[in-house]
């Protein structure tokens, strides 16, 4: 089961691409009956409603088998996620991105994927009809219903309102999820600094410290995951927002980033709207979170505009220096990749919010975007053109590490153990 397979089936049964038998006039009464009675469908005593289905049972069964199996896969995926999350809680696994990077990242990615699958499943308009028709034709052909139908039908009913059900499910996992997210606090906070803070830190400047220009650049941080995990994680485990200040700070920074979460391709989740509706229902207020959510976002246009201006100047300086001194590509390679990553994020943000309607519309447009893209391409070409320099530098660098650094580390470890 994959997120893309659920998306594909959603696309195939969309308003413009409905399956042929779902649009037939003769099938209307059967479809209405299935929608009304689902999942309690009695094939034997409902022949007057299911007569048209009986006539085309072989074709309908053949067509819907792939769809039905995808729904079953989603149900089994949910069961496995339930089991895994409970095991992680029961065994009190230590989730810290700085200690158990792969484990923590995969744990958070699993939550994002699971939530995306469930939300996407709830957006398949004819899911009851597809499952119900498959059940009826299966019983007509084989004389008995599919073994998974009852549980699958119950799952579809439970997730009529997917967010409410997800909030219930993740309540017991709040401690584990929040601990994993909090381990990202330093990394995420630094990644989301303002342009003034970047400027004060002289981020990406190769000439800020001439004495160390030839020294290899390094970073004490690990690769960051997307903002989706913060928005989804704290939405599902919202109780920690009132008890832990760092959780609230992280969540505010994540909400400031974007109005939408991309589930897959063109499927998005309007996170501010969904959060306001969910919290209004949970806490009993109506509209009391609008300023909190959208106030943070209204300030983000200016924040991102400042970042783009800073990155444009920083990357222009970096490109000019590296074009004249390509030998610096070796020791400063990590700075180049970081700069390209930061630029990519800002370009993506602007593209996603360029149609935003607000008072400060000029903050969501950028007449200098082409220059930033041009500079990014120039950096990319420099990396490709001089990749032999980067390779040779790091081969020599690693060989020196193996001679001078690693033996010293092993010796110190040996002494500490004896």
Automatic annotation (TrEMBL):
InterPro entries: Nck-associated_protein-1 (IPR019137). Pfam families: Nckap1. One of its GO terms (biological process) is cell projection assembly. One of its GO terms (cellular component) is SCAR complex. It comes from the Eukaryota. PANTHER family: NCK-ASSOCIATED PROTEIN 1, NCK-ASSOCIATED PROTEIN 1-LIKE. This is Nck-associated protein 1-like. It comes from Naja naja. The lineage of its organism: Eukaryota, Metazoa, Chordata, Craniata, Vertebrata.
